[in-house]
């Protein structure tokens, strides 16, 4: 992971190489990171975020996000449905316009 992530409207952070490759193919800024790590959140400079979105069924990560001491709105979806995935993609597309 880079020392510092460049300021972006949207950044994809994931531990899945496949998801990172998907982000790259869609020209989305991306970072391969273990989000269970405090270091990853520090390097992402999450305190500057206005919204944090997670769509993964991982109770430890959900608690980690909910416990972040940041002003960002936290959207935690614990369903891996196609509908949730499609909504997130639409949100990201709109944010990049």
In percent, how much strand structure appears in the residues? 5-15%
Low-pLDDT runs of 5+ residues are 1-6
Per DSSP E runs of 2 or more residues, the count of β-strands stands at 4
Domain module count: 1
Mean pLDDT: 81
Number of helices: 4
Molecular shape: globular
Class by SSE composition: alpha/beta
* Distance N to C terminus: 26 Å
Elements, N to C (H/E):
EHEHEHEH
Key phrases:
alpha/beta, 4 strands, globular, disordered N terminus
Task: Describe the 3D structure.
This protein is of the alpha/beta class and 97 residues long. It has one domain. It is 38% helix and 14% strand. The chain is built from four helices and four strands; from the N terminus they run E-H-E-H-E-H-E-H. It has a two-stranded parallel sheet. A two-stranded parallel sheet has the order 3-4. The radius of gyration is 13 Å and the shape is globular. The N and C termini lie far apart (26 Å).
Helix-strand layout with pairing:
Elements (H helix, E strand, L loop, with lengths): L11 E3 L2 H9 L4 E3 L5 H6 L7 E4 L4 H8 L6 E4 L5 H14 L2
Parallel strand pairs: 1-2, 3-4
């Amino acid at each position: 992971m880079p020392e510092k992530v460049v300021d972006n409207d949207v950044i994809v952070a994931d531990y899945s190489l496949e998801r990172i490759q998907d982000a790259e193919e869609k020209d989305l800024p991306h970072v391969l990171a273990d989000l269970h790590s405090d270091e990853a959140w520090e390097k992402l400079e999450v305190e500057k975020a206005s919204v944090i979105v997670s769509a993964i069924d991982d109770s430890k990560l959900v608690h980690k996000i909910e416990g972040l001491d940041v002003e960002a709105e936290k959207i935690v979806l614990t369903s891996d449905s196609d509908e949730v995935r499609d909504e997130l993609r639409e949100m990201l597309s709109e944010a990049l316009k």
